Amino acid sequence: MKIKSTIIILFLFCFVQVQAQESEVIKTREYTLDSTKIDNYVEEAYGDKAQELIYDHPIRLKTIRDILLNRVLIVETSFEIPSTYKKLSSIEVLPYNKNLQRNKFNIETFNPLKYKIDFYNKKENQYIHIDGTQFYMIIEKFEAENLNK
Description:
single chain; alpha+beta; five-stranded mixed β-sheet; about 35% helix; about 15% strand
């Protein structure tokens, strides 16, 4: 009886060890955009057209603030980013600022407004992989009723 219980205990110990080795810890770190940089993001993306296209329209400015502060989340992860995520390199930059160009990704200076991302998508959240990094963006779907909160 003692041998039988020892064998069972050894079997369970081995099973637990195998399970522990197979489960990988996924580490993530989430970043939100800096609210003090909203004007910088707008001016970089829209250049000389910022006043005409954004600042002269309070609702557009409110929408931009909502996009940047409430609906864009940047995630750094240790897991392999799914190939189904859209690549940032496949998204064009906005045409308003002639000096606008793609820069090497830097979390401190990254500006999602530079890109022709469909921020008004009402159907589903969007997942965009920032090429060559372990970062991706989540753009939450647009819900106009949230602008009044």
